[in-house]
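Quick start: what a row looks like.
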Amino acid sequence: MSQSNVDIARSSINAYNRRDVESILDVATADFELDLSRAAGPLNGVYGRDRIEGFWAEITDSWQSARIEPHEFIEAGEHVVVPWTMHLTGRDGIEVQARVTWVWTFRDGAVERLSMYQEREDALEALGFA
């Protein structure tokens, strides 16, 4: 696995924290998918590239701030597994933390799919590493 995949994942998280969706999409394939099928709540589903900006706008509109704190970057073949904590602040100042794990899937140096898992172990098991 190329270190550049880890670099892409890291820079995309930094872009998200800056609310820079364009930088994230710049490193994604034309058929990129955001897989939130394992998520609880109203944003559950799979989002194609054409729906990503709407998805990010909904997060931005719902929260005063949203920041990702990655805990580690695990190289797993053409994947990078990133357990993280999302720090959210609501419009009324209420702070929320959510811990999940994301799997970044790469094709030809670009992000093809970003899949959310509730637990680190579930993500690693799905990739055959647990």
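That is the whole record. Residues 3-17 form the longest helix (15 residues). The first strand starts at residue 28 and ends at 35.
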